From TrEMBL:
Protein name as catalogued: Marine proteobacterial sortase target protein
Signal peptide residue numbers: none
Keywords of the record: Membrane, Transmembrane, Transmembrane helix
Keyword Transmembrane annotated: yes
Annotated organism of origin: Thalassotalea nanhaiensis
NCBIfam families recorded: marine_srt_targ
InterPro entries hit by this protein: CHP03788, VIT, VWF_A, vWFA_dom_sf
Pfam families (alphabetical): VIT, VWA_3
PROSITE patterns, A to Z: VIT, VWFA
Residue ranges annotated for the VWFA domain, each copy included: 362-532
Lineage: Bacteria, Pseudomonadati, Pseudomonadota, Gammaproteobacteria, Alteromonadales
UniProt entry tagged with the keyword Glycoprotein: no
Residue ranges of domain VIT in the record: 59-187
């Protein structure tokens, strides 16, 4: 007689398929949750077709072909008209949205601007008519826009996602018609090594959204700051944007900063014209990546593209140099507004003679080898790192950290830059290649958290395209763990994330450097190392002739050689009536005192100085916001930012521009369809174009879950068949015994 299975045996036999059942159900459930939160992406996907109906194509129609199929494109063009006066540029960007489809559509376009610009105006143009936008608190502006959209009115909304990333939404564009959005903004033109540089970002490198429950969870478990804990408990916005990523705990707005992208040949086109009114003789005007036409009448220069329009697949960079004999050591501009005077000061400290004292350095190089660096970018980065390592002397120490989905160090700890260790590093660099994710947290933690060894100065050089969405998490690590090290960022590729690069360098008391072309690697890296090797201007203070002044930045950073000091100031107009009033800037360079006086009332008048001061004030309030955990204090700072932005008509994280036509255009019977406007992939990139269906591993989880459920079903069927067979066998034996 066959013994009856014990409960333990039954439990052991069932454990496997029970495990498969539970895990499989969880994986399938996770996909269902993903699918529900990503409904917008599915809506977009459903608009694709496999073929084009050539019989119904109208002139001017544009179709985009991708792995998902073929879809009508919302054609956009971007026109940049730039007027440069001294060190400020006024840019008017006109975005034209043309609907070539037979449907009423809503266009949504995520686009880059230069880091920290002051967007202070927006207009919506419908044919020859225009509607001037209102600045409203962001939530209210969104409500205004949604109500107009629902009522069938033409409307537009411009929002800030990051200080260098914005979204334009345009509702109710009729079939075959166009709507133009004019955005006006101010940007500072930086000066470095006697060269001014104007940058117009034209596209976005796809931003990596870190995986959840990896580094973020480890930080939580290791009792990091309460701010990091709060960040992880921030509720995810279930109203997903149209991006290829879903929102996460680490990046709650991930779906708004990951717009769809297409190959560079299918991207949009831009026209660019620049008027240079520098007021001083120039020795050189050149574009780093685009062919230009240049003409000059006296000291006014006009620059335009050699072709009428260019593909928006890489940043436009225009450089100009003032003749050496005319270079000013200081400049000062002023504007009076509503009882206050506003000033913008630029002072270039003298270059100190090189010292013969060679202080040993500990150099930590971080190189990004993630997938977004694929193509030309990784070759630029490897050349830059190879050049950097060859500049070391035997008195220096160094280490290299490379990262993608994980990080790896060349040495366990920094080693002396002997000939053998340098050769080993050069060989190691030559074998690097780009692929995988952009998990920066581990690499930054490995590079920071250490003080400089006695007798050494510690410098970190971070070579990356900065294409991440979790900038705030990374800024907190830099701020809390850098200690006495300096951090310099080197932007690589056709469209690096300048928000991350510039803010990281600012927090790291270092400098931001950009290499956009493989032919300029040696020149740019030489400039960086020459700059940081020279004595710095330190302990900078400003004595103002009155206490009634607000200076920005509040804390003056040390300056490297060839870097100018830029200061924004606001004071009551009646507080400095003496025309001879002056401020004094002092500092120490190469152990010597440096002083410079500058008259406060004797300045050229220039519009926009008050707006620029307000933008700097908002910038510093945002920094204060990151540094506090107390909810009431946070809300107080947000209220201040909102008030300043609205009173100065400025776009910010908490205010938006909205324009609405009074009369409805679309009847409620006509269906409105959403159309995201794709950005071009950066020129030279070999990174795979991100798609919503492959942006997460939800599909993989779904398939694995289904497989596990199938295995569970087969196990249950096999168990049931085996039992029936055993019972049948037992029954037959019993019959034979009875016979």
């Amino acid at each position: 007689m066959t013994p009856k299975p014990s409960f333990k045996h039954y439990l052991t036999g069932s454990a496997l398929w029970l495990t498969y059942l539970i895990v499989g159900s969880m994986l399938v459930s996770s996909f269902v949750v993903y699918a529900s939160t990503n409904s917008n992406s599915n809506q977009i996907t459903s608009q694709y077709s496999k073929t084009i109906d050539y019989n119904n194509i109208e002139s001017g129609s544009l179709f985009l072909k991708s792995e998902q199929g073929i879809t009508h494109s919302l054609v956009t063009a971007s026109d940049y008209n730039v007027d440069v006066n001294a060190m400020m540029a006024r840019v008017v960007l006109t975005q034209s949205f043309t609907n070539t489809s037979p449907d009423w559509v809503e266009g949504i376009y995520v686009f880059p601007l230069t880091e920290g610009v002051a967007v202070d105006d927006m207009e919506m143009w419908i044919g020859e008519r225009f509607i001037k936008a209102e600045i409203q608190e962001r939530k209210q502006a969104k409500k205004t826009y949604e109500a107009a959209k629902k009522a069938g009115k033409k409307a537009s909304l411009v929002e800030q996602e990051r200080p260098n990333l914005f979204t334009t939404s345009v509702a109710n564009i009729p079939p075959g018609e166009s709507i133009k959005i004019k955005i006006s903004y101010l940007q500072q033109v930086p000066l470095l090594a006697n060269t001014f540089s104007l940058r117009l970002p034209l596209t976005i490198t796809p931003r990596y959204i870190p995986q959840e429950y990896t580094e973020a969870k480890l930080e939580y478990e290791h009792h990091q700051t309460a701010q990091q804990i709060e960040q992880q408990t921030t509720p995810i916005d279930i109203k997903q944007g149209l991006g290829w990523s879903v929102n996460t705990f680490t990046v709650p707005d991930a779906s708004r900063i990951t717009p769809f992208q297409v190959s560079e040949s299918l991207g949009q086109k831009a026209a660019i014209s620049v008027n240079l009114n520098v007021g001083l003789p120039l020795s050189k005007v050149e574009s780093e990546h685009h062919k230009i036409n240049h003409s000059a009448v006296e000291q006014t220069h006009k620059i335009s593209l050699d072709s009428s329009r260019v593909e928006m697949n890489r940043d436009f960079v225009l450089n100009w140099t003032i003749q050496e004999s005319a270079r000013p050591q200081a400049a000062y501009f002023k504007e009076s507004k509503q009882g206050f005077d506003y000033g913008l000061f630029m002072i270039t400290p003298p270059t100190a003679p090189q010292t013969n004292i060679n202080i040993p350095k500990e150099m930590i190089y971080i190189i990004d080898t993630s997938g977004s660096m694929g193509g030309v970018a990784i070759e630029q980065a490897k050349l830059a790192l190879d050049f950097a390592v060859k500049q070391l002397t035997p008195t220096d120490k160094f280490n290299i950290i490379e990262f993608n989905s994980t990080y790896t160090t060349l040495f366990n700890q920094s080693e002396v830059a002997s000939k053998a260790s340098v050769n080993r590093a050069i060989n190691w660099i030559s074998h690097l290649h780009a692929n995988g994710g952009t998990e920066m947290v581990g690499a930054l933690n490995a590079a920071t958290g250490h003080s400089a060894a006695s007798g050494f100065i510690r410098q970190i050089v971070f070579i990356t395209d900065g294409s991440v969405g979790n900038e705030e998490q990374l800024f907190r690590i830099i701020k809390s763990k850098l200690y006495d090290s300096r951090l310099h960022t080197v932007g690589i590729g056709s469209a690096p994330n300048s928000h991350f690069m510039e803010r990281a360098a600012e927090l790291g008391r270092g400098s931001f450097n950009y290499i956009g072309d493989i032919g300029s690697v040696q020149q740019k890296m030489s400039e960086l190392f020459n700059r940081i090797a020279q004595p710095m201007l330190t302990d900078i203070t400003i004595n103002w002739p009155s206490e009634q002044v607000e200076l920005l930045p509040k804390k003056i950073p040390d300056l490297y050689a060839t870097e100018p000091l830029i200061i924004s100031a606001r004071w009551p107009s009646n507080s400095l009536l003496n025309n001879s009033a002056k401020m004094t800037v002092s500092g120490e360079i190469n152990q010597q005192l440096w002083l410079q006086d500058m008259p406060v009332n004797n300045a050229m008048t220039q519009s926009g100085i008050a707006t620029w001061w307000a933008r700097q004030k908002i910038k510093h309030l945002n920094y204060e916001l990151y540094d506090t955990d107390e909810k009431n204090e946070k809300q107080g700072i947000i209220n201040k930012i909102t008030d300043i932005a609205i009173s100065n008509r400025l776009l910010s994280k908490y205010t938006s521009f909205v324009a609405v036509e009074k009369t409805p255009s679309r009847t409620l019977a006509d269906i409105l369809k959403k159309r995201p406007v794709a950005n071009a992939m950066p020129k030279g990139s070999t990174q795979k174009i991100p798609l919503a269906q492959t942006a997460t591993n939800a599909n993989v989880l779904f398939k694995v879950g289904l497989l596990m459920l199938l295995i569970t079903g087969l196990c249950m069927l096999a168990t049931r068949t085996r039992r029936q067979y055993q019972q049948l066998t037992l029954s037959n034996k019993s019959k034979k015994i009875k016979e």
